[in-house]
Write a structure and sequence with these properties.
With 316 residues, this protein is mostly helical. It is built from twelve helices and no strands. Helix 6 packs parallel to helix 11. The protein is globular.
Length: 316
Amino acid sequence: MLGIVFVLVWSSGFVVGALATERIAPLAVTLWRFVVAAAVLAVIAARRGERWPRGRELVRVTAIGVPLFALQFGALYTALDGGMPASTTSLIACSSPLWVAVVGVVAGWERLRAAQAAGIVLGLAGVVITLADRVGRPPNQAALVWTLLGLTGLTAGTVLQSRLRTSAGPSTVAAVEIAAGAAVLAVWAPLRGPVSVPFTWPAIWTFAWLAIVTGVGGPLMLFALIRQRGATRASSYLFVVPAITAIAAWPILGTPLHYTAVVGLAVAAAGLWLARQRTGRADPAERLTAPASEDSPAADPTLHPQGSLTSSRAAG
């Protein structure tokens, strides 16, 4: 159930993001989304009495937030703003499970069974099939570089998150990492355009969804998946995000739905099923970083985070 909810929430970020960035500058959306999400997570952590990272632990958590949030979202938004076709961006970003698996195997953290390796390849094929009729060439070298930087941020952040050992609460970890992303965007966003949010109903509700649903719920669910299942198995859920996003964009954004989205979903789902099989050697990341308690994602069913970017302004 956690994986299904994660896919739906993560995919919704791209659909709602397409609506939001029609009214708000892309990096402004990202900046204020991070600010609000970090504040909400801090309140949640305070009410739950979670322990906050301290000392070197705080430094490590903050360092993870830079690639996972600032680099990933900032770079992808910059690429889209620079003219990179949305589907090309999505295709590159959703290849991250492959690179997460490669890093894990090379570093000796996990050993993939043949079925898992086949699942990763099949999942990536599903992404390609879903976007086959929409992928376009990069408009320039800079846009391609930004997209690859976004992929690097997502991959590196996922791997680093899986290796994090901390007794701090999940909400505090997410709050610190997102705040680190906001700090970087506070410098970056003004250099790319206005950072104001129009006070109109369409702008407010889309921004609220991105800040609360995907900005708070997304990271908590992603972290729970990583803590429970390891980096490779958790990131494999991204394989089905493009197809789900394409299907959701049909009624909401009016984007034509092609048969490739349905076929791609079936192929990616088969790949996800194979990739979710346990590794040959237990990945330490699959052990919880702290004992399960009533405040941890493992024990909290409510915590049991963006996919075919359907618009050149869409991003998780």
